[in-house]
Write a structure and sequence with these properties.
The chain has 595 residues and is α/β, with parallel strands linked by helices. 55% of the residues lie in helices and 11% in strands. It has helices spanning 3-19, 47-50, 54-68, 88-99, 129-147, 163-175, 181-184, 188-212, 217-223, 225-238, 242-266, 276-293, 327-341, 357-369, 403-420, 429-449, 461-464, 472-491, 509-518, 521-531, 534-554, 563-586; strands at 28-30, 39-42, 72-78, 81-86, 113-117, 151-158, 272-275, 297-298, 304-307, 315-319, 345-353, 378-383, 386-387, 457-458. The strands form four sheets. A five-stranded parallel beta sheet has the order 7-6-5-11-12, sandwiched between helices. It has a four-stranded antiparallel beta sheet with strand order 1-2-4-3. A three-stranded antiparallel beta sheet has the order 8-9-10. Strand 9 and strand 10 (315-319) form a beta hairpin. The protein binds one RNA strand of 77 nucleotides through strand 1, strand 10, helix 14, strand 14 and helix 18.
Length: 595
RNA sequence: GGUCCGAUAGCUCAACUGGAUAGAGCAACAGCCUUCUAAGCUGUAGGUUCGGGGUUCGAGUCCCUGUCGGAUCACCA
């Protein structure tokens, strides 16, 4: 039973009985704090049907609902707003329904499948703050879809080939002196990243030197020896030169090991990995097929293009004149391969930054032109960049925030603050360690997920490690407090069964307010999937925790003499703790038993 | 230059898709630990929702226009 749907149908009945017309779309919203009631019907649009002014319309519906619905106990009218007060028995029934439903927050299996891609790093440098937003977002959206009853495939595409990795390879060959993760003690991804930076340094110096000798800029950029070496390696790679391939797979191997360690720390996982080195050839094939079908065309120099001017876009290259593939070619291949691998998926979601909006618009158009009807069920989950207080992150300028460093700092900060508060006395060292990680990572994830994904956001390190207010740790703390209550109830032998709800006579306003938020939980989970927005879940969980804390602070649970009321409060607490746990799980955040 | 996105309290973000006197957190100030965890709670202060027009019972939200940010328009990925 869903309260909103029930109330809506009662309102529909009333309008039909009073004014003789069926209404479908009318606005039912939460009542403002300052007025009595929980639900408010906006009556202005109904005046056309009622032929009365808004106040009279509201009053008539209110009276009818009190007399006939059985769920509305009182009402008041302010201007055209009809504020409804539901009977306590309605709220209690709802609490009972939630409390006795072990899978509250998990909607039934709907038989649909969906694929969600996220992360998709290049293999030439370690993960950074931008990847964190990407991974947390994609992973969370996947969990939200699972909660909506979908079967979900979490995937990533690994950018393991191309000039970028050849740059690291070139620099390592020249300056590496055989350095490995083992000999250097560096994480593999960081080691490879180091040589990417080395490449850039050497390249810039060489270009500068050439220009000083009188070369033009364009010429110098092509002639720089280290760039020539990288290009040579790319060419050899495509020709499957065994020496280059060996170096390539060794260095990529280092990177994967490093990435995996980071993913593990992040609590992010994948069901299947795709590698561009496996998909770009399929992409080429598909482009050639498209060329035969006349979907694409060839220019004089041999390059292959698609003309999207009819769709308001430009012409776009799909194969270079030398026959090698570009980014778009690979993505075409990958998309097709995925639908072959998983024929039952209804669609695919790409979690990729908004600087690639144009790219995905083009990709989906091309797939449509190639005749794949699923093209229109591909969705680019486009999220905004993460800025720093100092401005944009620029890898070339060394202003990137490294993912490993950031996570370590967050955990360290969590540890420090937790120790200062003296919360670790009864914990074993392992338990304490787990708690610090839970809090540090929880703070970070919540900070990145609470903002609407579409929006560009500011990452202020000082604010992200805050543990008070609208933060992950605040919610984790609320959960821990409730668990303490439930442990106490257990030790006192207090249990709540289905029959107990009949004994509860009334509710305090603070309890109703908690229930009012709790009641919207599943609706928000649906909305979060529809909007691809974990922020909706984050906001809801925060509001729930806040509302519960008000209740907690004002009503000492175990002082209650009335056994029914006491049990009601235990049940409410349990329901809130479970919802918090479930909601946070959708964000990838664990909640502690004590903190 | 074309296209797209954004601008809300000092700062970071909300606002149920057109509804009531625009809400939270942080920062500031004032209170609350003898009862379940003060990482909490209560209160005060803080707003011309970038400017200007328009649409209607009603606009932060929709339309037009201007200003300021950002992204994109590569035989890069």
């Amino acid at each position: 039973m869903n309260l909103d749907t029930l109330l809506r149908s009662e309102i529909q009945k009333s309008v039909l009985a009073l004014f003789g017309q069926q209404v479908e779309n009318f606005q039912l919203q939460p009542t403002n704090q300052e007025f009595e009631g929980s639900h408010t019907l906006v009556c202005f649009p109904l005046t056309k049907i009622s032929k009365k002014n808004p106040e009279e319309t509201a009053k008539a519906i209110g009276e009818y609902l009190v007399a006939n619905s059985g769920i509305v106990s009182r009402f008041n009218v302010v201007k055209g707003f009809l504020n409804l007060v539901l009977g306590d028995s309605v709220w209690l029934q709802m609490l009972e329904a939630i409390y006795t439903n072990p899978s509250f927050g998990q909607l039934p299996d709907n038989g649909e499948e969906i694929m969600i891609e996220y992360s998709s790093p290049n293999t030439n440098k370690p993960l950074h703050l931008g990847h964190l937003r990407n991974n947390f977002l994609g992973w969370s959206v996947a969990e939200i879809y699972k909660a909506n009853g979908y079967k979900v495939h979490k995937v990533q595409i690994i950018n393991d080939r191309g000039i970028h990795i050849c740059k690291s390879m070139a620099a390592w060959t020249l300056y590496g002196d055989g350095e490995t993760p083992q000999t250097s003690g560096m994480k593999g991804d960081h080691l490879v990243g180091k040589y990417y930076v080395e490449f850039d340094k050497a390249y810039k110096a060489q270009v500068k030197a050439l220009i000083e000798k009188g070369a033009s800029e364009a010429e110098a950029e092509k002639q720089a020896p280290i760039m020539k070496l990288a290009s040579e390696m790319l060419r050899k790679w495509e020709q499957k030169d065994s020496e280059v391939l060996q170096l390539w797979s060794m260095m990529n191997g280092w990177v994967y090991k490093g990435f995996n360690a980071t993913y593990e720390k992040m609590g992010v996982d994948f069901d299947k990995l795709y590698y561009e080195s496996d998909t770009y050839l399929l992409g080429k094939e598909e482009v050639m097929k498209g060329l035969e079908k006349g979907v694409f065309f060839k220019k004089e120099d041999g390059s292959v293009w698609v003309d999207l001017t009819g769709d308001g876009l430009d012409q776009k290259v799909l194969l270079r004149a030398d026959g090698t593939s570009v980014y778009m070619t690979q993505d075409i291949g990958t998309a097709i391969l995925r639908f072959r691998d998983f024929p039952k998926i209804g669609g695919q979601v790409y979690t990729v930054g908004n600087e690639q909006e144009y790219h995905f618009k083009v990709l989906f158009l091309i797939l449509g032109k190639l005749g794949y009807e699923w093209a229109k069920r591909c969705y680019h989950l486009s999220y905004g960049m993460v800025d720093l207080p100092t401005g944009k992150m620029k890898s070339r300028e060394g202003t990137v925030v490294d993912a490993d460093d950031l996570i370590d700092e967050m955990v360290k900060e969590a540890e420090q603050q937790t120790r200062e508060l003296g919360k670790v006395e009864d914990l074993t060292p392992q338990e304490a360690r787990q708690l610090f990680e839970m809090i540090g990572l929880g703070a970070l994830k919540f900070f990145l997920l609470k903002v609407d994904p579409k929006k560009r956001m500011l990452f202020d390190p000082n604010e992200s490690i805050q543990l008070q207010g609208f933060t992950g740790p605040f919610i984790q703390y609320t959960h821990a407090r409730i668990r303490a209550i439930l442990r106490k109830a257990e030790s006192l032998g207090i249990t709540v069964a289905k029959e107990d709800f009949k004994v509860i006579k009334s509710l305090e306003p603070a309890e109703r307010e908690v229930l009012q938020v709790l009641q919207t939980f599943e609706g928000k989970i649906k909305e979060a999937a529809r909007e691809y927005a974990p922020s909706i879940v984050a906001n809801l969980v925060y509001e729930l925790a806040k509302e519960y804390n008000q209740f907690y602070q004002n009503i000492p649970i175990f002082n209650e003499a009335d056994a029914g009321k006491l049990k009601g409060r235990i049940a409410l607490s349990k329901a809130v703790a479970d919802a918090i746990k479930k909601g946070m799980q959708l964000l990838g955040i664990q909640v502690p038993e004590r903190m």
